[in-house]
Fold:
Amino acid sequence: MMRMSKSPHVEDLIPFYALGGLEASEAERVAAHLETCPACRHLADEALAIVALLPYAAPPVTPSPETRSRLMARIQRRRTGDEKRTTFALRFPSPVVNAWRALAPTLAGLGLALAVILAGLNISLLTQINQLRQQNQNLSERLQQQQQYLALITAQQTQARELKGTDLAPGGAGRIYFDPAQGSGLLVVYGLEALSPNETYQFWMIGANGPESAGLFRVQANGQGELLINWHQAFQNYQAVGVSREPAGGSPQPSRIVLLGQL
Ligand SMILES: [Zn+2]
Structure:
C-alpha cells in the first residue's frame, strides 16, 4: 500500500503513523522527517496522544475468534518480518511515546481494529453525506419550482378558472392559473385517484382544432398534483382545458376525461 505525500511534509501520513499502519519504509521516512521538522513533530505528538486515548474512547469491539486470530497472525507476521516498525518511536523523547511503546503490542492490534472501525465510520458518513446532498438538491429544485408557481399565481395579468370532475371522477376538482396572452400556466388538481405506474394523467388544451396534448402528470397519494404548462400558443386561443386518464406515456386523443373547465 503506497501513500504518496504531495508536500515535503508528512502530515497526511501522520494518522497512519500514529495508528502503526505504515509500511517500514514509510515509517522510516516519517520518522526521519519528524527529526528535522518541529511542525510535523508537533502533529505527530498530538496524533500519538489521541491514539493513546482511543482504546478508552472507542466502542468495545469483539471480533469473532476467526477474525481475531487472522488479525493477530497478520500483526505477528508484520512485526517479526519488520523489527524497525516498533523502533521508530525510540527517537521521540515524549512520555506519550514511551507509554505507546509499553502498550505497543496491545495497541498494534487495537490500531488495526481501529482502522477497520474508522474505515466503517468513514463509509457510513460518506453515505450519509451523499444522501443529504441528494436531499438538498431535491429541496432546492422543489423550492425553485414553488417560486415559479408563486410568480405565476401572483402576476397581475394572471387569471384563474375552475375545472370540475366528470362522472368518471366525481370527487375531482382543479384550478388553472394562466396568462391569457401567453402559453404559461399552472394546473393544480385535487381529489383525483392516485394511479399505478402504468397509468398517467394527461392535460389537454381544447380549441378549434380539438384537444391538444399539453403535458403528463401524476398525483400524490392525497389526490393532489400540479402541472406547470409552457404551451407554444397563448391561452386566449383556446376555449377549454381538460384532464384525462391514460395509459403510461399518454395518448394522441383523450380517452377517459376526468376534469373539464371553460377558459
Ligand atoms: Zn514537516
User: Anything to note?
Assistant: The longest helix spans residues 95-154.
